[in-house]
């Protein structure tokens, strides 16, 4: 029997039970029998939430005496875990799971395998349907789908209040009260306060089982047409602002919107007897399940885009149109979502959107890149948020500490307000420094530039009054795109960036793909053979090999800078010949444009990044060829210490202020003396005060840093006397036992210089 036919059979039988005049308990008893029989499973049980506990309401296969006796708290045992995380479990050996809890009254000891799905009502798990089997085997996908369908049917019964007999009230919609903390992962730093608004006002599925399958099919067809139309219009009009990266995300949407596999699966679910809404939801549940198993963060991000689109389809088909964005934000808002597409985030009113909390999300997710550009703090991976947050709850978001406080007490809110006011005060003071040039006390001008990567980042240039873009990470465009960005698209971006920068310089770094910045469409070249991708086939190595890639970028940059000055920087140069080879590619493209009588850049400055330690020993050969050199301390330090920068366990392994790093940097400085090379630092290190102080003490006069750090660093610069700090640095570096961090701290304090 096909999967659809099997599901159809279950649904038909469930339909009959629902339509019968039986009392609620009788219906539940029949449901567990139907599922147990259909899945050939010895046990099928239904748990529902009552009195704050999950109660066994019906079972086939466990002791009947346990019904209405076995009760578990949310989070307790396997069933409690399913409800808490609102997720499916599928285990070959239940006892092997750390949350397994044995309940003797149920007589379940002879069963090995276990699968369970949550019953979800208004985004909250209000129960679970579980099956158990004597054989230790995982359940098949189609079996889990049958369970999920059953869970949907049960939630429909809940909606229609036909699940419990009179007098047996379930506590289904009662939410949590009192202050609660929610922890997660810092995706974009910052503080924010506001009221919880759920991105997706829940599409309530009123009917799971179809009366007329053909009619449902037509509804879904129409919805698909409408959705594709919407996406096409959005792509052509780039209605989310000025196109660019978002345009590329829309391309991804487009790819999914026309994906035959997706519409086929929805059709199959309709064949099995579901309504259009239920079919879309079913397929979405399946996608979510798959997503949890995927380890590749970039692929997972793409899956989120698909989920985004499925929600859109669901809203169209049900006529429940609009996200919270389309309804408009009425107050200062902390937006809550499982995940968001970047385009969806951009639909919100920036004045009222204060922060975002995501149940999922990762540092490389598109939405996070966009939120960072918008300056909106984001807390990600806040598991279980649906059990804690209700629409309209007051929330204090402290993304710096990776924490959100839900329904804060008054004293908590006051303390947060005080902290918040202080940071706002500081920010206002920094904003005042916008037009002040950063001269040191002794009168030296320090260049303070920003690191950027998106078109939207360019607004930070004017906002901070920075001297230019010291590092434009061109690979960001590649990261947010589903396919390799063609030359035309690159050209458009670079042109816009240069236009936004006006007279200020922008240093374009050629693509640094690979490492932790893998893109699926180049996966053959990257990751495949790389056990350690940071030291693998990435950046310039990859670009020189795929010369077409570098050629296209070179031409795009040269054309974008016609009549202007172009700064090009090559990443991960480990030997001088790599710089030469990359420069040749640019010179060839320049010659090509010249032959075609195109307007060329007025001047071209070539630079390299020093982030591979070996290059430090070869500067006598390289420096004469360079216009500028930028030290990438993020990569440099990971290579110096052999400590993977993306491994959180190693985050505390070394200190940027250790003598090893500072002595190394000093040697780089010394090795460039006598050459006409403009030397700067563009790693995160330069955005921290003590570190920036040390760098100035070593002789660095150009820093390129994250835009939020520009104010604090400018303020620091104005309080420093370079001669004093360089003398102090010489002293400390001469004695390797010196605790340089402590010494710098003391030095700064004595001079009334604030440190972080
Ligand atoms: C660096 O490595 O320090 C750097 C600035 O580049 P990225 O962080 O993009 O690797
Ligand atoms: Mg780097």
Features:
8-stranded parallel beta sheet, 27 helices, binds phosphoenolpyruvate, binds magnesium ion, alpha/beta, 756 residues, 22 strands
Summarize the structure.
With 756 residues, this protein is of the alpha/beta class. The chain is 44% helix and 16% strand. Helix 7 (260-271) packs across helix 8.
Task: Give structural notes.
- The protein is of the alpha/beta class and 756 residues long.
- Helices cover 44% and strands 16% of the residues.
- The protein has 27 helices and 22 strands.
- The strands form three sheets. The chain has an eight-stranded mixed beta sheet. It has an eight-stranded parallel beta sheet with strand order 21-20-19-18-17-16-15-22. A six-stranded antiparallel beta sheet has the order 3-2-1-6-5-4, sandwiched between helices.
- Strand 11 (353-358), helix 12 and strand 12 (378-380) form a beta-alpha-beta unit.
- Helix 5 crosses helix 9 (297-318), helix 7 (260-271) crosses helix 8 and helix 19 (547-560) packs across helix 20 (576-595).
- It is elongated.
- It starts with a helix and ends in a 6-residue tail after the last helix.
- Residues 238-245 have low confidence and may be disordered.
- It binds phosphoenolpyruvate and magnesium ion (MG).
């Amino acid at each position: 029997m096909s999967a659809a036919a099997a599901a159809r059979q279950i649904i038909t039988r469930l339909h009959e039970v629902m339509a019968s005049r039986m009392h609620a308990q009788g219906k539940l008893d029949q449901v567990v029998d139907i599922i147990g029989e259909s899945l050939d499973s010895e046990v099928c049980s239904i748990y529902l939430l009552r009195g704050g506990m999950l109660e066994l309401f019906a079972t086939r296969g466990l002791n009947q005496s346990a019904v209405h006796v076995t009760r578990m708290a949310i989070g307790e045992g396997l069933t409690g875990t399913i409800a808490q995380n609102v997720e499916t479990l599928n285990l070959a050996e239940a006892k092997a799971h750390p949350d397994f809890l044995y309940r003797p009254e149920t007589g379940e000891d002879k069963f090995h395998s276990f699968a369970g799905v949550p019953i979800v009502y208004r985004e909250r798990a209000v129960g679970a349907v579980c099956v158990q089997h004597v054989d230790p085997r995982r359940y098949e996908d189609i079996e889990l789908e049958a369970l999920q369908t059953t869970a949907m049917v049960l939630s429909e019964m809940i909606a229609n209040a036909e699940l419990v007999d009179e007098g047996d009230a379930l506590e289904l919609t009662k939410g949590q009260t009192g202050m609660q903390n929610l922890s997660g992962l810092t995706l974009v730093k910052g503080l924010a306060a506001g009221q919880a608004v759920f991105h997706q006002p829940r599409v309530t599925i009123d009917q799971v089982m179809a009366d007329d399958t053909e009619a449902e099919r037509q509804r879904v067809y129409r919805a698909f047409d409408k959705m594709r139309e919407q996406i096409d219009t959005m792509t052509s009009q780039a209605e989310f602002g000025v196109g660019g990266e978002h345009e590329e995300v829309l391309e991804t949407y487009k790819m999914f919107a026309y994906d035959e596999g997706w519409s086929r699966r929805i059709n199959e679910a309709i064949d099995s007897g579901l309504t259009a809404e239920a079919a879309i939801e079913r397929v979405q549940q399946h996608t979510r399940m798959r997503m949890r198993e995927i380890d590749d963060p970039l692929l997972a991000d793409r899956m989120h885009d698909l989920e985004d689109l499925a929600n859109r389809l669901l809203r169209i088909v049900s006529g429940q149109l609009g996200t919270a964005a389309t309804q408009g934000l009425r107050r200062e808002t902390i937006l809550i979502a499982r995940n968001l597409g970047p385009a969806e985030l951009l639909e919100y009113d920036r004045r009222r959107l204060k922060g975002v909390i995501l149940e999922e999300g990762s540092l490389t997710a598109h939405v996070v890149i966009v939120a960072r550009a918008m300056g909106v703090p984001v807390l990600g991976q806040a598991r279980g948020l649906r059990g804690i947050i209700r629409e309209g709850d007051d929330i204090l978001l402290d993304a710096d500490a990776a924490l959100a406080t839900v329904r804060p007490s008054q004293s908590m809110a006051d303390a947060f307000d005080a902290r918040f006011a202080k940071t706002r005060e500081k920010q206002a003071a920094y904003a005042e420094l916008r037009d002040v040039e950063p001269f040191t006390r002794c009168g030296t001008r320090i260049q303070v530039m920003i690191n950027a990567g998106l078109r939207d980042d360019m607004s930070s240039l004017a906002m901070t009054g920075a001297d230019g873009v010291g590092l434009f990470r061109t690979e960001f465009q590649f990261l947010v795109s589903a396919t390799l960005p063609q030359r035309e698209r690159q050209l458009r971006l670079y042109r816009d960036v240069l236009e936004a920068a006006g007279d200020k310089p922008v240093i374009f770094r050629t693509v640094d793909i690979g490492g932790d910045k893998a893109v699926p469409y180049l996966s053959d070249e990257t990751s495949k053979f790389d056990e350690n991708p940071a030291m693998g086939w990435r950046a310039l190595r990859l670009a020189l090999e795929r010369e077409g890639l570098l050629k296209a970028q070179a031409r795009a940059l040269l054309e974008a800078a016609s009549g202007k000055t172009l700064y090009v920087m090559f990443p991960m140069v480990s030997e001088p010949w790599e710089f030469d080879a990359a420069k040749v590619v640019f010179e060839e493209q320049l010659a090509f444009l010249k032959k075609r009588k195109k307007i060329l850049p007025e001047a071209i400055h070539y630079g390299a990044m020093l982030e591979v330690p070996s290059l430090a020993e070869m500067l006598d050969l390289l420096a004469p060829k360079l216009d500028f050199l930028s030290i990438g301390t993020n990569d440099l330090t990971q290579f110096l210490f052999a400590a993977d920068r993306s491994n959180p366990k190693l985050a505390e392994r070394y200190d940027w202020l250790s003598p090893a790093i500072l002595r190394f940097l000093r040697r780089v400085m010394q090795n460039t003396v006598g050459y006409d090379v403009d030397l700067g630092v563009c790693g995160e290190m330069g955005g921290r005060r003590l570190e920036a102080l040390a760098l100035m003490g070593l002789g660095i006069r150009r820093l390129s840093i994250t835009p939020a750090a520009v104010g604090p660093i400018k303020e620091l610069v104005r309080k420093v006397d370079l001669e004093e700090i360089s003398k102090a640095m010489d002293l400390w570096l001469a004695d390797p036992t010196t605790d340089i961090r402590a010494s710098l701290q003391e030095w700064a304090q004595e001079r009334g210089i604030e440190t972080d």
